[in-house]
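Protein modeling request. Please complete all fields; requests missing the sequence field cannot be processed.
Requester role: graduate student
Desired output: 3D structure, token encoding
Chains: 1
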Amino acid sequence: MAALAWLLIPLVAAIGAGLWGGWASRNRKSIEDGTELAGYSRFREAMERSHTGG
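Delivered output (54 residues):
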């Protein structure tokens, strides 16, 4: 019976690793980069104004 327990440990670990791998590589909804790019361009314009305005 103890040998069976020692054989179940790697089996449970392999199943857990498979579940975690599937969860980690799932398709996530990608957030549109448009808002981030618009914010970055506003930031860049503000920095250019602050450097040329002084």
